[in-house]
Amino acid sequence: MPNKSRARRSTQRVTMTDVAKLAEVSASTVSLYLRKPDEVSTQLGQRIQGAIDTLGYVPNLMAGALAAARTRVIGVVVPSMVNAIFASTVNTMQKALGDQGYQLLLGHSDYAEAEEEAVVRTFLSWSPSAMVLTGLNHSRETRRMLSNSDVPVVEMWELGSNPLDTLVGFSHRDVGRAQARHLIKAGCRRIAFIGTRLGVDERAKQRQSGSEEALRDLLGSQHTRVIDCGPGRMAEAASRAFAELLASHPDTDGIVFANDMLALGALGEAQRRGIRVPDDIAMIGFGDMDFSNCTLPPLSTIRPPREEIGEAVARCVLRRIQGRPQETRLDLGFELLPRESSRRVTVDA
């Protein structure tokens, strides 16, 4: 038989008053610590946090939202959860905003405007303190919902016209120009572009256009061989695209890649075929992923300001929430990293 004298688990929710009593402070001090931890002394903060940890207290954010019409949540929409290039940005944002008592609500659009629209609609229903979107291309309904709300909006990872609110990013068209110019300075004259999902990835499409503009301006080329790998495993798709490029354009001597993962797949295929990189074909990627300096040969690439974007977005969000003035367009630039995959001659980077 069950032991009827056994104490039952309490079903009563731990309250802010319980935390205040254990920490020997007022409930208003606990509330201030949860909302603005920097405005509470270190000693009091440690006592309050100790009480929170001891009691297992979880703040009722919705209760605060009913009073302030806002949760302490920031909605963030990225194109992909599996694309590591956005991970550093989101991680940096979380650290900076978390220190101020905010949490990120993360969703992904899979590069589809309809998916982004659905995520934005859901996030707005939770009364976020701000919204962060990736890029400038949104559906008409997404723009309408955000414009009609009084929620601060930051669009990141891109620069352009007609922003919703605040822009933080860099020019992808300039990235493409820099990639192509770099290969031209290395002596390449028949340059191709290999990308993936160019029909929906607007930023990759801009890099392609920038590459084509540089080739046209510097070489007078009217056409660049472009291969779109489509969805799927990028390294494997790039390997097939590289083989296709060699079959259709065997005189290709330089390749601009939409990202480093595609370049990695092409490097592997080049090794299998005995093609020398960069002597036969020079290559440059985009992203400066962790493996990029460890490939054989090390991959020339463009380093986007991943962490810098996260820091700037967090600053913009906090200033907008606080009603403080700020710039509405932040161009953080990018860095060209010349490595052995494109060093055919001395390169003026």
Automatic annotation (TrEMBL):
What protein is this chain from? LacI family DNA-binding transcriptional regulator
Named from the GO MF annotations, one term is: DNA binding
Pfam families, alphabetized: LacI, Peripla_BP_3
Q: SUPFAM superfamilies annotated for this entry?
A: lambda repressor-like DNA-binding domains, Periplasmic binding protein-like I
PANTHER family xref list: LACI-RELATED TRANSCRIPTIONAL REPRESSOR, TRANSCRIPTIONAL REGULATOR
Gene3D superfamilies (alphabetical): 3.40.50.2300, lambda repressor-like DNA-binding domains
User: What keywords does the record list, in alphabetical order?
Assistant: DNA-binding, Transcription, Transcription regulation
Its source organism is: Halomonas salifodinae
* Annotated HTH lacI-type domain residues: 14-68
Q: Which domain of life is it from?
A: Bacteria
